[in-house]
Structures are given as structure tokens and as C-alpha cells.
Design brief:
516 residues; seven-stranded mixed β-sheet; alpha/beta; five-stranded parallel β-sheet
Length: 516
């Protein structure tokens, strides 16, 4: 294995892989280093006890014309093994079943039916749709955001549209403020619905989520949803195949433990550097791997959460300060994977909804959430649904993930949460019967830290309440011009479409600065 590359990408989440693909497509020799045995980060899959489970993310959107996944497929000629699904989500709340229709008009009528509000409810959702559409457009046009100097502001002015001012203004007020404007805040059931929907997409609730960002999250079920045949891992595997075809490489079991920026007059062997661009400095990347542990490149892309990145280098003091300011209120997750036997007579596959949010009567113990999100394997997925077996992926929020330790009460806490989740599934799905469970496992923040390396097992990115001042968001550009940032802790934030857009923007920014 070669040690010198044009670009090294640390972490194989979809943001980092997108940046790697973009650089490779521009003729750069790219190496992707991954801590785990398989790529994908929080959007991956794994085999356990003979069943294929999802690691984390289970929903996929963003293939509409101009949106990030559409750009990824068209600009790089990639075809993902995806299949559209008709129904986006069903919400189970207080004995009611709420259909999150993809069609905007149908969804507005459903919201009025369940929560009332009449014309005020119509206006609320019309505003959400408008802001969501404009925010996706704005995120693609302002490639330099958040701006770091006046030059970047002036360069971006050519992309300005009058509607951008409206988006900016609504980024300064909370969802609860807008609810009060439309006099929708008195309905407690509606408030609970909004809060739990926002936690999925914004890691925040109504009283502290900026409305513009919240609008994009609240309306994602109104985009076309897809499932990935063979599990979410196939997304990253497809990108890696294209990277390799372009001369790049992916190496698993390469946990990066230190980054050092060095003078490139001599390379690691004391010879003159072979980099085509002959840069003045290079990044030395050290990993735990015994055989191949030191790599170098003039350009570095980090797909690590910012809290992880600042612990392995002394070259980013400003980012370290910023990361420390965003330590509070970061969520962890409790997840379960369940394989269950479902008889063909018991469970009709006709027009089945695969994604559900179940509101609980009380919050889960030990800092758990008030709802769980459930995804069911597609009946035609021959890897995950075979011989009458279906695979369920269940997730919920956990506050203060740093408090989870493998102490004497660890297994007790796990079993208490497992029991409540299984009871909720049995109560809400008539086909879910506990004796039919073939196998299940659960994961806490401790597990997530082991799987992904994320500090304290933090998942989902930085809560949107940190960004009432949107200029405070973490840029794709670090304080060092040759170290780029991607992933869910940097702009534009969490979710597969967002991290893909971040990867695309980071490379375009870099190329326009003419480094390397």
C-alpha cells in the first residue's frame, strides 16, 4: 500500500465519501481511512446472528431535481440500489394514527383533521414548505457559507435572491414563536407531535429550534422516500466502487490517532516529495494499524465529529475552542435491531408503511425519549426479508450519553428500555407478537462509541438551537486551508442529503481557492 496520496479522507461517512469521490473525479489520488471494518458511519449495515441490521439511519430522501442526492447521481454517474416507497411515515399518537402523506395538500388536510387549526394550520405548513424549498436552494447557492471574511460575502452576492432575506429572518425565531403567531400553541397533542418530529431531524424541540432549519426537517416526509436494497451499507459501497474505479482506495481498520502538519521538503523516507502539486507542507496521518500506520498528503478531509477531530491534532486551536462551546445538550441514541417471524396471513404487505414513529405514554427511563422511530425491512428485500422474517430497526434519543458506562447497572438499564420498547411495538402493531421474535439486540451510547468512534457515542450532529445565529455554524473549511471538514457536525448539518451537500461544497470551495 502506498503511503503518499494527493488527498486523505478520514472517516467513510457519506459526507467524507462524497468529498473523496469529488476529488477523485478531478484527478486526485484519494485514500479513505476508516476505523471500522465497513464504511458508512451512522448510515451502515451489519450482520449479526445471521440477520442484516441497520446501524443507524434508515430513511433516504433528496433525489428530487437539484437536491444533493440527485446531484451525486448525475454529476458522477452513480446508480444506487434504491427503491421508492409510496408511504413516508405513520405516526402513532394517543391512540390516533396519523399518515405523513408525501403529497403536500393531503398532508395539510391530515394535519387539520387530527389537530384542527383550520386556515391557520394551512398557513403554518405553507410557510414550512416555502422555507424548506428556499433553504435547499440557498444551501446549494451559498457554497461559502458560513462566511469567514468580506471577500466571501461579496463573491456570494451574485447568488443573492430576495427570498433569501425571508429565510434569514425565520432563522432568528423559534418554532414555538411561529406557532403563537398562528395561534396553534394551545393544543398539547400538536405540541408533542411537533417536538418529537423535530427531535428526529433537528435534535431540538419547538421552543428552541430555529424555524427555517426546522421547516426543512418537518417537511422531509413530503419528499420522495426510498429504501436501499441490501441495507444502507450499499450506499457507501456504491460510492467506494466508483472511487476505486477513479484510482482511489478505501482502507478499513485504520483508526486515525494523530495528525501532524509537516514541512514537505523531505518525505517520510527522507526523499524528495512525489506529490504532483509539490506543496510546501503535508499532513502526516498516523493510525493504529500495525502494518500500514503512517500516510501523508497535502490535502486532508475530516469526516470525524468536531469533538473527535480536535483530540488528534494540535493544528486547530480555534476549532477546539468552538467544539468545547458546543458540548452541552448533545444527544446519544438507544437502538434495537429485531428479527421477527411474520406469517403471510397475519401481516399484509399490500401498501405497507415501512417507517413509523410511536409516541409513548411516558418517557423512556435513564434519559430516554418520549417516542421511538421504527423502520421495517421491505418485503421484497431478499437479504433482509426472507422466509417470512422481517427486520425492525428501532431508535430513540438518549440525553447525556456521556453518563452511560459499562458499570454494574448497565445491563439492568438496557433491559428496562428494551422492555418498554417491545411493549410499545406489541401494542401498536397487531402482527408484532413477542413469542415470534427470533433474535434482537440493543445498543447504547457505549456501543455507538465502539462502532463509530464518536466521542461519548454522540449521534445526530449538533442541535439546531446552537444556530439561532446561523453564522455560528461550523464551516466546511477549518482554520487551516488544506484541512476540510464534512459530516453532520458541520454546515449544513445532519441527514444524508445535508452531509452529501457538505461534501460537494467543501471540494468546490477548495478548488475555487486554487490550493494544491
Amino acid at each position: 500500500m502506498e503511503n503518499e496520496w494527493d488527498v486523505i479522507v478520514i472517516g467513510s461517512g457519506l459526507g467524507g465519501l462524497t468529498a473523496a469521490l469529488s476529488f477523485a473525479n478531478k484527478g486526485k489520488r484519494v485514500l479513505v481511512l476508516e476505523k471500522s471494518i465497513s464504511p458508512g458511519g451512522s448510515a451502515s449495515s451489519f450482520w449479526k446472528n445471521g440477520y442484516l441490521f441497520e446501524s443507524g439511519a434508515t430513511t433516504l430522501v433528496g433525489f428530487e431535481p437539484g437536491l444533493p442526492m440527485d446531484r451525486l447521481t448525475k454529476e458522477f454517474g452513480i446508480q444506487f440500489p434504491i427503491q421508492p416507497i409510496e408511504r413516508s411515515m405513520v405516526v402513532h399518537l394517543g391512540g390516533k394514527t396519523i399518515e405523513r402523506y408525501k403529497d403536500r395538500t393531503l398532508w395539510i388536510n391530515e394535519a387539520k383533521r387530527v389537530f384542527g387549526g383550520g386556515f391557520r394550520m394551512v398557513l403554518f405548513w405553507k410557510l414550512c414548505f416555502f422555507l424548506s424549498d428556499q433553504l435547499w436552494s440557498l444551501s446549494a447557492r451559498y457554497k461559502w457559507f458560513p462566511f469567514q471574511n468580506l471577500r466571501e460575502v461579496f463573491v456570494s452576492l451574485k447568488n443573492f435572491r430576495p427570498y433569501d432575506v425571508i429565510v434569514f429572518l425565520f432563522s432568528l425565531v423559534s418554532v414555538s414563536f411561529v406557532q403563537k403567531l398562528f395561534w396553534l400553541h394551545k393544543n398539547e397533542e400538536w405540541n408533542q407531535f411537533l417536538d418529537e418530529q423535530l427531535l428526529i431531524t433537528n435534535q431540538s424541540v419547538s421552543n428552541n429550534a430555529p424555524f427555517a432549519m426546522a421547516a426543512a426537517g418537518l417537511t422531509y416526509p413530503n419528499l420522495q422516500n426510498y429504501i436501499v436494497t441490501g441495507g444502507m451499507l450499499e450506499l457507501s459501497q456504491t460510492v467506494i466502487k466508483r472511487i476505486r474505479a477513479l484510482g482511489g482506495e478505501f482502507l478499513p481498520k485504520q483508526e486515525v490517532i494523530h495528525l501532524t502538519k509537516k514541512d514537505s521538503d523531505k518525505n517520510l523516507l527522507g526523499e524528495s516529495p512525489s506529490f504532483p502539486s509539490n506543496p510546501n507542507t503535508i499532513w502526516e496521518v498516523k493510525t493504529k494499524n500495525r502494518e500500514n500506520s503512517i500516510f501523508s498528503a497535502p490535502i486532508l478531509v475530516s469526516n470525524l465529529p468536531i469533538w473527535n477531530l480536535v483530540t488528534i491534532t494540535e493544528s486547530l486551536p480555534k476549532l477546539k475552542t468552538k467544539a468545547k462551546q458546543m458540548e452541552n445538550g448533545i444527544w446519544g441514541a438507544f437502538t434495537m435491531g429485531i428479527a421477527i417471524q411474520v406469517g403471510s396471513q397475519e401481516h399484509s404487505h399490500q401498501e405497507e408503511c415501512l417507517h413509523h414513529q410511536i409516541h409513548l405514554e411516558v418517557s423512556l427511563p435513564h434519559g430516554g425519549g418520549r417516542s421511538v422511530f421504527v423502520s421495517i425491512s421491505h418485503p421484497e428485500d431478499k437479504l433482509r426479508s426472507k422466509e417470512g422474517v422481517r427486520i425492525l430497526s428501532v431508535s430513540t434519543h438518549l440525553e447525556n450519553p456521556e453518563n452511560w458506562k459499562r458499570d454494574k447497572d448497565y445491563q439492568i438499564r438496557k433491559k428496562e428500555i428494551e422492555s418498554m420498547i417491545l411493549s410499545a411495538l406489541e401494542k401498536n402493531f397487531d402482527w408484532f407478537k413477542l413469542p415470534n421474535i427470533l433474535f434482537f439486540h440493543s445498543a447504547t451510547p457505549v456501543t455507538w462509541q465502539t462502532w463509530t468512534g464518536r466521542k461519548w457515542g454522540r449521534v445526530g450532529g449538533i442541535p439546531s438551537f446552537y444556530f439561532f445565529n446561523p453564522f455560528r455554524m461550523v464551516s466546511n473549511r477549518s482554520e487551516d486551508p488544506t484541512l476540510l471538514l464534512t459530516g453532520d457536525t458541520v454546515y449544513p448539518g445532519q441527514g444524508i442529503p445535508a452531509v452529501v451537500l457538505g461534501g460537494l461544497n467543501a471540494v468546490e470551495q477548495f478548488e475555487s481557492r486554487k490550493f494544491g
